[in-house]
Automatic annotation (TrEMBL):
CDD domains: Tm-1-like (cd15488). Residues 2-174, 183-399 form the UPF0261 domain. InterPro entries: Tobamovirus_resist_UPF0261, UPF0261, UPF0261_C, UPF0261_N. This is Tm-1-like ATP-binding domain-containing protein. Pfam families: UPF0261, UPF0261_C. The lineage of its organism: Bacteria, Bacillati, Bacillota, Bacilli, Lactobacillales.
Amino acid sequence: MKTVALVGTFDSKGTEYQYIKQLLEKLDLNVFTIHTGVFESSFVPDVDVSEIAEQVGENIAQIRQRNDRAYATEILAKGLEILLPKLYEENLFEGVLSFGGTGGTSLVAPGMRQLPIGLPKLIVSTVASGDTSVYVGTSDIIMMPSIVDVSGLNKISKRIFGNAVSAMAGLLNYRFETEEDERPLIATTMFGVTTPAVNYAREYLEKNGYEVLVFHATGVGGRTMESLISDGYFKGVLDLTTTEWADQLVGGILNAGEKRLEAAALAKVPQVVSLGAMDMVNFGPFDTVPEKFKERLFYKHNPTVTLMRTTVEENKKLGQIIAEKLNLVQIETVLTIPKNGFSGIDVVDGPFYYPEADLALIDALKKHLNNEKVKLIELDYAINDQAFAEFSAQQLINLIDKKGN
């Protein structure tokens, strides 16, 4: 029988969790209960909240006396972030299920994010229909809207609870076992306007014995890739699409944070970097573009995505940023530059063709790049030319081979 870790506030929602526990057991699942509520659980759990507090050197009695909900949530979230992976390493559960509002979700999500990708993890939450990135992060947490608050048993909540329990049972008992692929992993980054380049590179790498994981450079994609690089998943990184830095600098909606382009350098993972889609900043529908940008050059990629062309001054700053990130590398690294266009629309007769802006980025890169371990290679291709993509892929293979020796 498979075991589910049922994690939540058994003090304020004890009746609801006992009902959920019974549903899980009816589906022949063992239930391992973890109490995260500040006060005493309404039933005896397998792991009490006192154990969670102890992980960060705190005493639950003192937390109760303080009577500060925000403080308690912060402390217990940190404790569970430490304890939950430990419990998993002890083989005490094979999936995690939780229910709650903003507080309960904020408490449980950090711990779930520390669990391996592929381990079923589901949160039923009142905040699941909004922006869940703060809870999910770079993990594979599944979030299900609770519709009504997780408070009381009624016609709606029982149906939602039942659906969630059934989903968890399905995840545990009907998982498709994939064949283990022993090929070394390569990470690469793609955007709609760099798709041909990534497809060419992926096919080339696969023919040479590698398995390629493609990350969509939409902010969360870049953050996820950086996280997995740090965790040691990849033999090499083909970072063809660094567009997230344009959003980070200018104020677009798809930024990946200030640490983007650091993981491979710090982890000493072979990488080839390029400038894919650095000609654009991303916004939602056109009417959501900030007023201060209204006079800029735009391209409506689709009804929900509006692209804005970067300027000469912005590209000078972007060139400096990319150079500063590459100056961090500690092993041989290659920067390939497609002189004839950074994206599918930054080409001759394309809507974003602006060679002066591209040149400003390239010149700034050269000016600020001072790491002798970085080899800068300029090529008379556009990024989506097959020759450019395959050349970049071969450079990565060369770097991996050198490190292996």
